[in-house]
From TrEMBL:
<keyword id="KW-0028">Amino-acid biosynthesis</keyword>
<comment type="subunit">
    <text>Dimer of large and small chains.</text>
</comment>
<comment type="function">
    <text>Catalyzes the conversion of 2 pyruvate molecules into acetolactate in the first common step of the biosynthetic pathway of the branched-amino acids such as leucine, isoleucine, and valine.</text>
</comment>
<dbReference type="InterPro" id="IPR027271">
    <property type="entry name" value="Acetolactate_synth/TF_NikR_C"/>
</dbReference>
<comment type="similarity">
    <text>Belongs to the acetolactate synthase small subunit family.</text>
</comment>
<dbReference type="InterPro" id="IPR019455">
    <property type="entry name" value="Acetolactate_synth_ssu_C"/>
</dbReference>
<dbReference type="GO" id="GO:0003984">
    <property type="term" value="F:acetolactate synthase activity"/>
</dbReference>
<protein>
    <recommendedName>
        <fullName>Acetolactate synthase small subunit</fullName>
        <ecNumber>2.2.1.6</ecNumber>
    </recommendedName>
</protein>
<feature type="domain" description="ACT">
    <location>
        <begin position="30"/>
        <end position="105"/>
    </location>
</feature>
<keyword id="KW-0808">Transferase</keyword>
<comment type="pathway">
    <text>Amino-acid biosynthesis; L-isoleucine biosynthesis; L-isoleucine from 2-oxobutanoate: step 1/4.</text>
</comment>
<dbReference type="InterPro" id="IPR004789">
    <property type="entry name" value="Acetalactate_synth_ssu"/>
</dbReference>
<dbReference type="InterPro" id="IPR039557">
    <property type="entry name" value="AHAS_ACT"/>
</dbReference>
<dbReference type="Pfam" id="PF22629">
    <property type="entry name" value="ACT_AHAS_ss"/>
</dbReference>
<dbReference type="InterPro" id="IPR002912">
    <property type="entry name" value="ACT_dom"/>
</dbReference>
<dbReference type="InterPro" id="IPR045865">
    <property type="entry name" value="ACT-like_dom_sf"/>
</dbReference>
<dbReference type="GO" id="GO:0009099">
    <property type="term" value="P:L-valine biosynthetic process"/>
</dbReference>
Length: 187
């Protein structure tokens, strides 16, 4: 997956990229870090980002090796190529970090996100919400006479599109897991 490039000056960047006035583009990267699963590790990793003014678009964490006490942190962030290189180098220097993979640079990867949407409505809005849910392959996981809760898995862009369509139909709440990602292939 090649990095998503965003023209500098667009609404999809943070103030930190102003540090490099010669950079024309910021890029979206998905980083996968295997860390020691102990108290305070997540705070230290996140502190690296907040302490330097880097933005995190998505963050997921789960233990992946119970016996080895290791967790996987998947971080989606944006920055100039120099900023992304700096983030990776700083993560790799942390003692609690065992591996850092830039899934964006390493080749093809699979990214998915899970979302729940609560949509309240009656009449035609209710019918339209069900019709759109079917098109987007969203599952109804809860239903009352006045609302639905839809569950959807897919790319973040698909979930964003579904949310936009549900807003005028009565979207009242949503919860999202953040991006989970793996590289494709045998390695």
């Amino acid at each position: 997956m090649s990095p998503l490039k965003i023209k500098k000056g667009s609404s999809k960047h943070s103030a930190y990229d102003l540090k490099d006035p010669n950079a024309d583009y910021i890029e979206r990267h998905t980083l996968a870090c295997v860390v020691t699963n102990e108290a305070g590790v997540l705070a230290r990793v996140i502190g690296l980002f907040s302490g330097r003014g880097y933005n995190i678009e998505s963050l997921t964490v789960a233990e992946v090796d119970h016996e080895g006490h290791r967790s996987r942190i998947t971080i989606v962030t944006v920055g100039t190529p120099a900023v992304i290189t700096q983030i990776k180098a700083q993560l790799e220097r942390m003692v609690v970090v065992h591996d850092v993979h830039d899934l964006t640079e390493e080749g093809a990867s699979v990214e998915r996100e899970l979302a729940l949407f609560k949509v309240a409505g009656t009449g035609n809005d209710r019918i339209e919400a069900l019709r759109l849910a079917e098109i987007f392959r969203a599952n109804v996981v809860d239903s009352t006479l006045e609302s639905f809760v839809f569950e959807m898995t897919g790319h973040s862009e698909k979930i964003d599109a579904f949310a936009e369509l549900m807003r005028p139909l009565g979207l009242i709440e949503q919860a999202r897991t953040g991006v989970a990602a793996l590289s494709r292939g045998a390695k």
